[in-house]
Design brief:
5-stranded parallel β-sheet; Rossmann fold; alpha/beta; 4-stranded mixed β-sheet; 500 residues; 20 helices
Length: 500
């Protein structure tokens, strides 16, 4: 007695189709699984055996062999429980084969027969759209809300005997919802220049490093950046939710249009930041896809971990090379870093002297490294706010007001049809800027004075283009170039390890 049921396994952020082939034959009672299965898949034998009996079905007293095809593909996870159980019931005649024919089944089984969700349900659902039907656990994520997909939720294994006429249609679409940010810019008193700079960064998706003494407000500013970002677009919602689903996180927030904000601890490993492990899982840079990655106390991160960010910052993706192939994770994010100017935190402070020993400041600044610093568009010196300004408690602009300006600026940028400003390069960047003669001379002088590389000039122009979008200007003039230079080198900027 044989049967075949369709399922899938996760590789990177994609679901790869797998056929569960099951054979029941005479011989000594046994239950074996072959086909490059990991430990979690092999443990399905005990879960399936108990779930089948607890659901009122009979487990055959025979030789049972399960083959997961294709054989060379590594299979992992507990999502094979439900398809293995369904193949067993179909092979023994306890389940009509028409119920599972042409369907993709994914789900973990409890010992009492209940069906649980597994990481990556959204990826499984995207693959299942090719067949049109997905049978899986009752879940509240986006897997059940995809267009062109019929989703059949199962609370228990016994629900499989229901007729396919009970299939639940998917929702018409995944709609974005407006959510008020929990942390508002109006709660921050002062820091007008920093707020303006973050507004520019939100417009173009630029990388920012804030340097200042402890308690000046660097973290408060960074945590309010998501509140001024526009909601995710339809394509961004799906791609962001897919990464979160594969990582086993709730994908409800990205599906509703909320941009991710990730703030890993400075003890994070390289695999924790950029991804890895066995099986490979997305890291923090991928979980921040289409959102913000905030590195607080940036020099305290391991130098190797920080340098691993260089390639994702340039390419917008992470490529992990393993013996069995290459795995890609999306990682298009805006980096926001916060750092003290020196180990004691008071280098350049007008009120408190720096107490760091000779050489300590240089070693502290070198932990980030020049190549990574060259990939940061804006440097902001954050000073302590006057106590009188704090005690006055006069609220400034709310985040939603700033967000409206950012949305309008991004709409202006979208009319050019060249993509996001932070990713423009080459002829597309110069076509977007349309530099005036005065602006061109300003860029040349800045490049020679500050020894800018080609990458440095590109990033300077990107920031200037974002400033022009905020100002509603079709081309970049000298004023926008000057403001972009100020964010990187002037009074608005403050490099790590130096006085303002």
């Amino acid at each position: 007695m044989r049967s075949t049921v369709r399922t899938s396994t996760i590789r990177g952020i994609e679901a790869i189709p797998v056929d569960v082939e099951l054979d029941v034959s005479s011989g000594l009672p046994s239950f074996s699984i072959v086909g490059l299965a990991d430990v979690a898949v092999l443990e399905a034998r005990e879960r399936v055996r108990s779930a089948v009996r607890a659901s009122g079905f009979a487990f055959p007293n025979a030789r049972v062999v399960v083959n997961l095809a294709p054989g060379p593909l590594r299979k992992h996870g507990t999502g094979f429980d439900l398809p293995i159980a369904a193949a067993l019931l179909a092979a023994t005649g306890q389940l009509p084969s028409r119920i599972v024919d042409g369907c993709t089944l994914v789900g973990e089984l409890s010992l009492d027969g209940s069906v649980r969700s597994v990481p990556g349900m959204l990826a499984h659902a995207l693959l299942a759209r090719e067949t049109g039907v997905l049978i899986g656990p009752v879940c509240s994520d986006g897997a059940a809300d995809l267009e062109d997909l019929e989703y059949r939720p199962l609370a228990r294994l016994g629900d499989l005997v229901r007729d396919r006429s009970s299939l639940m249609p998917a929702a018409a679409s995944i709609a974005a919802t407006e959510e008020s940010p929990s942390e508002d810019m109006a709660d921050i008193f002062g820091h007008e220049l920093a707020k303006r700079a973050l507004e520019v960064a939100a417009t173009g998706g630029h990388n920012v490093l804030m340097v200042g003494p402890p308690g000046a407000g660097k973290t408060m500013l960074a945590r309010r950046l998501p509140g001024i970002l526009p909601p995710l677009t339809a394509d961004e919602r799906l791609s962001t939710a897919l990464v979160h689903s594969v990582a086993g996180l709730d994908d409800a927030a990205p599906l509703s249009g909320v941009r991710p904000f990730r703030a890993p601890h400075h003890s994070s490993s390289i695999a924790g930041l950029v991804g890895g492990g066995s099986p490979p899982r997305p890291g923090e840079v991928s979980l921040a896809h289409n959102g913000v990655l905030f590195l607080d106390e940036m020099p305290e991160f391991g130098p190797a971990s920080l340098q691993a960010l260089r390639q994702p910052m340039e390419d917008g993706r992470v490529v992990l090379v393993r013996a069995d192939g290459r795995i890609r994770f999306p990682a298009r994010f805006a980096l926001v870093g916060a750092a003290n100017p020196c180990p004691c935190g008071f280098l350049g402070d007008p009120d408190r002297p720096c107490t760091c020993p000779p050489g300590a400041v240089g070693r502290y600044a070198a932990r980030i490294g020049g190549p990574l610093l060259d990939r940061i568009d804006m440097y902001l010196r954050i000073e302590r706010v006057d106590p009188a300004r704090v005690l006055d408690a006069r609220p400034d602009e709310a985040s939603w007001i700033i967000r409206e300006r950012v949305v309008q600026a991004r709409e202006r940028a979208s009319t050019r049809g060249l993509g996001q400003t932070a990713s423009l390069t080459g002829t597309a960047l110069f076509a977007a800027c349309r530099l005036s003669p005065e602006a061109r001379r300003g860029v040349e002088r800045a490049a020679r004075a500050y020894h800018l590389s080609g990458r440095g000039i590109t990033r300077l122009l990107r920031v200037a283009r974002s400033v022009a979008d905020l100002d509603g200007l079709p081309r970049v003039d000298r004023d926008q170039i000057d403001e972009a230079i100020a964010y990187r080198f002037g009074t608005g900027g403050g490099s790590l390890g130096t006085c303002p």
